[in-house]
Amino acid sequence: MIVEYNNFRFQVENPSSCPHCHNGIEPREIYNNADRGLIYSIFQCTFRECRKQFVVAYQITGQTSAEFKGFLDGTPIGPHWTDTIKNLKSKFIATYMQALL
Ligand SMILES: [Zn+2]
């Protein structure tokens, strides 16, 4: 993706996964804007059951370069639960994931 800002053009790498569903995707770029050394880009997940939008921040590191800084939203990837814990069907995992937000 190319971002134009202050007459400079920045080449940034599109994220390769979605922060909501955590699937590997080629996200659709919707919008981007730069401010005070940061580029903010809005992408849409292309995974059919997700299609959520998310914001990615890039740190401008040079006249034409910017580095992935992080997702500004999404859901954290929780620990890998063993089947024993999953099969308990308790609210433990949901409560745990809620606590991460
Ligand atoms: Zn997604």
Written account of the structure:
With 101 residues, this protein is mainly beta. The protein has one domain (2-74). Helix content is 14%, strand content 37%. It has helices spanning 83-87, 92-100; strands spanning 2-5, 8-11, 28-35, 38-44, 53-60, 66-71. It has a 4-stranded antiparallel sheet, with no helix packed on it. Strands 1-2 form a two-stranded antiparallel sheet. Strand 4 (38-44) and strand 5 form a beta hairpin. The longest helix is centred in the C-terminal third of the chain and has 9 residues, at 92-100. The two termini are 29 Å apart. Bound molecules: zinc ion. The site of zinc ion has 8 residues, from loops. Zinc ion binds at residues 18, 20-21, 23, 45, 47, 50, 52.
Task: Chart the SSEs and their pairings.
Blueprint: E1 2-5, E2 8-11, E3 28-35, E4 38-44, E5 53-60, E6 66-71, H1 83-87, H2 92-100
Antiparallel strand pairs: 1-2, 3-4, 4-5, 5-6
Which features would summarize this protein structure in a list?
binds zinc ion, single chain, 2 helices, four-stranded antiparallel β-sheet, elongated, mainly beta
Helix-strand pattern = EEEEEEHH
- Main-sheet strand order equals 3-4-5-6
- For the record, give the distance between the C-alpha atoms at the N and C termini, rounded to a whole number: 29 Å
- What is the total number of structural domains? 1
Counting DSSP H or I runs of 4 or more residues, the number of helices is: 2
Q: What is the general shape?
A: elongated
Attached small molecules:
zinc ion
